[in-house]
Amino acid sequence: MAEYGVAKFALPGERESGDQYLVCCDSSGILSAAVDGIGHGAEAANAAKAAIRILKNGMGTPVIPLVTACHERLRSTRGVVLSVASVDVKHGLMTWLGVGNVHGVLVRADKKSGSQETLMLRGGVVGDQLPQLQAAVLPVGQGDLLVFATDGVRSDFTATLYALENPQRAAERILKGFSNGSDDALVLAVRITGIHP
């Protein structure tokens, strides 16, 4: 139902990255997310991992209640910024939303339908200051490529995307070419499959 690739960079001197990801599939769909714990190091990683656990346990829940649950449960942490997408494979629809600065781009495999869609981000921190949440719903097709990148990656990577690139190669190429080197960085590339028109 999904083929994905991920590439990560942890700041030198830190044992783990504060940037984490999730790709979860069941018979009805795909849930994917990229989460950036505020700051870096162990505390940032703990906040991001807690968010990933909440999202994973909420598979099948609509994205707005899911992010709201993250906000409530992360109040005692540093908080996170995140982008999350839920794909309904039966109906060929993706619902996505972003809080903070984790970029999201959908690259369409079908050139006729316009090649890219960009996730509208709202300022805020999940666990601290949650903005009014607004999710966008888009049609998705077989082979479309969803890319999330945390703020350790320069946003101009979007000009280099093409739908047919292998997800793992895409993630590694983007991280290598666009990491700013001054923050943890993560790139998640997910090819959407299992959609039958």
Distance between the termini: 14 Å
The third-level CATH topology is: Phosphatase 2c, domain 1
The CATH class designation is Alpha Beta
Number of strands: 11
Strand/helix succession = EEEHHEEEEEEEHE
CATH architecture: 4-Layer Sandwich
Overall number of domains: 1
- What count of helical segments does DSSP give? 3
Approximate shape: globular
What does this protein look like?
With 197 residues, the protein is an alpha+beta fold. It has one domain (2-192): Phosphatase 2c, domain 1. It is 20% helix and 35% strand. The protein is built from three helices and eleven strands, in the order βββααβββββββαβ. The chain has helices spanning 42-57, 63-73, 167-178, and strands at residues 2-9, 19-26, 29-37, 80-88, 93-99, 103-107, 116-118, 121-122, 136-139, 145-149, 185-192. Strands 2, 3, 4, 5, 8 and 9 form a six-stranded mixed β-sheet that branches. The protein has a five-stranded antiparallel β-sheet with strand order 1-11-10-6-7, with helices on one face. α1 packs across α2 (63-73). The longest helix has 16 residues, at 42-57. It is globular. The chain starts with a strand and ends in a 5-residue tail after the last strand. The mean pLDDT is 93.
Question: What key attributes describe this structure?
Answer:
single chain; 3 helices; six-stranded mixed β-sheet; Phosphatase 2c, domain 1; 197 residues; five-stranded antiparallel β-sheet; alpha+beta
How is this structure best summarized?
The chain is of the alpha+beta class and 197 residues long. It has helices at 42-57, 63-73, 167-178; strands at 2-9, 19-26, 29-37, 80-88, 93-99, 103-107, 116-118, 121-122, 136-139, 145-149, 185-192. Strands 2, 3, 4, 5, 8 and 9 form a 6-stranded mixed β-sheet that branches.
